[in-house]
Amino acid sequence: MNLSDRLKDKTLFKTQSYFGGEWHSGAKTFAVDNPANRSKLADVSDVGADGAKAAIAAASEGFKIWRKTSPFERTRILIKWYNLINENADDLATLITSEMGKPWAEAKGEVAYGSAFIEWSAQEAVRIHGETVTVPFPGTRGWTLHQPVGVVSCITPWNFPSAMITRKAAPALAAGCSIVIKPAPETPLTALALAELAHRAGFPAGVFNVICGNAEDLGPVMIGSPEVRMIGFTGSTEVGKLIMRQAADGVKRVALELGGNAPFIVMDDADLESAAAGVAQAKFRSGGQTCVSPNRIIVQNGAADPFLELLEAKIAKIKAGDGFDSGSDIGPLIHDEAVARVDQLVKDAVAGGARVRVGGQPLADELGGSFYAPTLLEGGNFDQAIARSEIFGPVASVYRAKDEKEIIELANDTPYGLAAYLYTRDIGRVHRMSEGLDYGMVGVNAPMVGSASTPFGGMKESGIGREGGKWGVEEFTELKYVLLAGVNS
Ligand code: SIN
Predict the structure, then answer these.
(1) Same domain, 366 and 424
(2) What is the CATH number of the domain that holds 228?
(3) Are residues 191 and 206 in the same domain?
(4) Which residues 6+ apart lie within 8 Å of 416 measured at CB?
(5) In a domain, 457, yes or no
(6) What does the alpha-carbon distance between residue 240 and residue 248 come to, in Å, rounded to a whole number?
(7) Residue 2 confidence (pLDDT)
């Protein structure tokens, strides 16, 4: 069955870019494949640099209208988009599973997670207030305004084809910005379906735009065009640095959600059953392909053996398979290069002394797609590549350590600082250790940190800015100060 036949609403299957309120083709196309079986899903039009320029011009026109649109009207249109997304959640999940691979139920969860950012931002649109400020000059009054930044370019990743778009688009739109989104070439179909639903929701032409194509052609236009005032990006630290350098030329604002190397810390006093369940949940979500995925599971010596027994039993039950099979707990990795990369990390770790307790090999031949076995490793050391780089695959790697001091030092010994997890029942430790961890988010006895109402983002080389909650909306506003003289005659 082809992808379009799987959809209840076939008009959600789009292969052109959407800007200025219309659908556009470019001269070339690129193929989108299903990583579970390597079959071709679609040829998507590449609009090239000229298409990107036209989209930015459309967004500039859109901004002129949207910045003056009443926040109450912005809320209404955002809520329409939110409702349409939820009414079409099954189809959106089908698109996500087809092009990205995660199990269909998890894909539906992503649609709900992603749409919550729209609901939250829609409600915030009418709560973007300035303040009156006390000024030292006689006969004057002062106040502040939060105004929309302008045209925003958003470059989004393949691991959350829906949620990483809505987490940027919704607050930007709520603040009064217009946006041009470039989805990852692996997952444009979900983005284009979101554009179709945005069109139906009634955003004025040019306010919401999605363009597809090659990053080398589209990127410089999206970052360098003078009309663009901000760039929102989720992806690797390497590309984030490149974007920051390019944005520096126009002194543009950036919001960067970059790579992570999350420590998952289990102290002697922790509830070990809950900690093992936490690793199984956080590590294997999206097949381990999330920036907040536990990368180094650091267990205090006294808890290590029983914790490993519990975790081994859980990982041994995790089944990899096609995301449309209801028995699959995790889907494939995004492509074969990702499988080869993860396999190399595991091989290096084993060569350096780590022991495979579960899995440890690609399942590509067995399952016919880009699959890697759910894996548990123990006994590696912190200098190995698997501990220093982001695994981005279904491999849980467990290390032992002595005490709080050593664990905090090990956890912070990385250029990254996105998410950390801490399992302990000692309230003093909760405070000491969560304060000591150089991370933007710390889940204490909690394996999932992200939500629509809370700040998501990292320290150090994991990024700049926050997505979610009031902080996410504020990122897309400029703070202006107004001073009025001559008040007292
Ligand atoms: C990400 O991997 O970039 C996002 C993960 C999340 O929102 O939980």
Answers:
(1) yes
(2) 3.40.605.10
(3) yes
(4) 237, 258, 259, 260, 261, 390, 458, 460, 461, 462
(5) no
(6) 12
(7) 86
pTM over 0.70: yes
Would the CB of 159 count as within 6 Å of ligand 1? yes
Q: How far is the CA of 133 from the centre of ligand 1 (A)?
A: 37
Task: Reply yes or no on whether the pLDDT at 474 is more than 90.
Answer: yes
CA distance 186 to 184: 5
pLDDT band for position 364 (cuts 50, 70, 90): confident
How does pLDDT run across 223-260, given as a tens digit for each residue? 999 999 999 999 999 999 999 999 999 999 999 999 99
| Among candidate residues 166, 167, 172, 122, the one with its CA nearest the CA of residue 152 | 172
DSSP conformation class of 271? -
pLDDT at 195 over 90: yes
Are residues 277 and 251 both part of a single domain?
no
Do 359 and 234 fall into the same domain? no
| Distance from residue 261's CA to the centre of ligand 1 (Å) | 13
Residue tagged active-site, from 186, 291, 378, 467: 291
Residue with tokens 């949207």: 66
Q: What confidence tens digit (pLDDT) does each residue in 282-328 have?
A: 999 999 999 999 999 999 999 999 999 999 999 999 999 999 999 99
CA 448 to centroid of ligand 1, rounded, Å:
10
Q: What CATH number should be reported for the domain holding residue 432?
A: 3.40.309.10
Ligand 1 lined by 293 (C-beta under 6 Å)? no
Q: Is 489's pLDDT higher than 90?
A: no
Average pLDDT over residues 432-460: 98
291 is known as an active-site residue: yes
Note whether 139 and 186 are same-domain residues.
Answer: yes
Q: Are residues 318 and 216 part of one domain?
A: no
Q: Indicate if ligand 1 lies below 6 Å from the C-beta of 114.
A: no
Between the CA of 450 and the centroid of ligand 1 the distance, in Å, is 7
- Specify whether 76 is located in the same domain as 184: yes
Nearest CA to ligand 1 atom 8: 450
Same domain? For 186 and 99 the reply is yes
Pocket test for ligand 1, best of 96, 158, 456 (most atoms within 8 A of CB): 456
Establish if 423 belongs to a structural domain: yes
Task: Give the C-alpha separation, 359 to 286, whole Å.
Answer: 17
In a domain, residue 211? The reply is: yes
Please tell me the predicted confidence (pLDDT) of residue 374: 98
**What is the chain's length?**
489
| Domain total of the chain | 2
Name the residue range of residue 293's domain: 262-451
| Residue 216 pLDDT exceeds 80 | yes
